[in-house]
Amino acid sequence: LIRKCPPKSAFTSCAITFAQTWATNAPVCVAESDTDIVAIKSVETTTTATFTVAAAFTASSKLEVVCFGRV
To answer: What is the value of pTM for the model shown?
Structure first.
């Protein structure tokens, strides 16, 4: 899953929509940034994951995200 988070300027949150809905439980997602040293909070549902930071991402920020399903 590769998604770009709009806009191309500074932003404090990024939401992605999963290509397929998780069956019963929301997954657990972890994100990290190669370009920014910031704590990232994630909130997941069965259809989306939203990542939020206190300090704004920049236009060149990139997140690496991995999500795992729960039983």
So the answer is: 0.79
- pLDDT tens figures, 37-71: 888 999 999 999 999 988 887 777 778 888 998 64
The dihedral through the CA atoms of 37, 41, 64, 11 has a sign that is negative
Please, what's the largest Cα pairwise distance for the chain?
38
Look at the block and give the residue holding tokens 């988070």.
Answer: 5
- Degrees to nearest 5, angle at CA 13 with 71 and 23: 20
Across 51-71, b (16+ Cβ under 10 Å) vs e yields: bebeeebeeebebebebeeee
